[in-house]
Amino acid sequence: MIIITGATGKLGRHVVEALLSKVPASQLAVAVRDVAKAQAFTDRGVAVRRADYDAPATLRTAFEGASKVLLISSSEVGKREAQHKAAIAAAREAKVGLLAYTSILHADRSTLGLAAEHLATERAITASGLAYTFLRNGWYLENYTENLGSALAHGAILGSAGNGRIAAAARRDFAEAAAHVLTTTGHEGGSYELAGDEPFTMSELAAVVARVAGRAVAYQDLPVDAYRDALIGFGLPPPFAALLADSDAGIARGELDDRSGQLRRLIGRPTTPLQQLVEAAVKA
Questions:
Q1: Residues linked to residue 55 through DSSP beta bridges, in sequence order
Q2: What are the two backbone dihedrals, phi and then psi, of residue 157, each rounded to the nearest 5 degrees?
Q3: Does 128 share its domain with 226?
């Protein structure tokens, strides 16, 4: 039995789809906070179990009988470490054979503000005694392609990434890597640095958007504080705006670049090109 947490999220849905192409639905279960949102999984024969990171007892029940668990990191920045530790304790109690965790690229040396909770989680998993695999995901292409409306309307993409390169890949790519790890052997104790094949700068992103859309779009690089303030002006909560601006500063330092090719090798194909997702987003 393979259990996926956070399966109704944007990454989790892709993971379930990838797994269903490899194993029978009877061998899968999803652990989700809102069971009603998982009806589509039930309809396809996947077991649905309620699991709330903030309610440890539900995690213990959800992980019963699991041979492998994919712990998809919580979306609640600032609460992740405690939530993940509750899931780790539940996995240990359930005697899970392998705990795979979706971490962040280069978690063991990253200086990104977002990396701290991921590294703390990795250390807690290592200390738990469970067999584990760390899937250190880079940036999602969708971080950019799902928010092109403003760029197309105003002809500008804002950021503080300078000329830093971003080795982003599509969520589907990362999901296929997770499914491969969960359905094959030899990954225990491994840490995979997962990133796209074609790193790009924000200026190159803007050029692709402009070419596909057939209109002028340019990248406007801002000081970190100015970018943070702009994000707040767009309605983002100040702490989240600060994290995003900090991430862009990390991109400028090369923190989200990677040329290892580990994602490509795990999924057995090249990663999804940036232009492909930009074309789909502009068309939509």
A1: 52
A2: -115, 125
A3: no
Is the same domain home to 46 and 78? yes
Domain with 249, as residue range(s), is 145-149+156-164+197-258+269-283
Please give the Cα distance from 150 to 154 (Å, whole number): 6
Contacts 24+ apart (CB under 8 A), 241-245: 242/113, 243/77, 243/113, 243/114, 245/160
pLDDT in tens, the chain (284 residues): 999 999 999 999 999 999 999 999 999 999 999 999 999 999 999 999 999 999 999 999 999 999 999 999 998 888 899 999 999 999 999 999 999 999 999 999 999 999 999 999 999 999 999 999 999 999 999 999 998 998 999 999 999 999 999 999 999 999 999 999 999 999 999 999 999 999 999 999 999 999 999 999 999 999 999 999 999 999 999 999 999 999 999 999 999 999 999 999 999 999 999 999 999 999 98
This prediction's pTM = 0.96
Q: Is the same domain home to 50 and 90?
A: yes
CATH number of the domain where residue 215 is located: 3.90.25.10
The DSSP secondary-structure symbol of 53 reads T
Count CB-CB contacts under 10 A for residue 265.
12
Distance of alpha carbon 154 from alpha carbon 53, whole angstroms? 40
CATH number at residue 128: 3.40.50.720
Domain count, the chain: 2
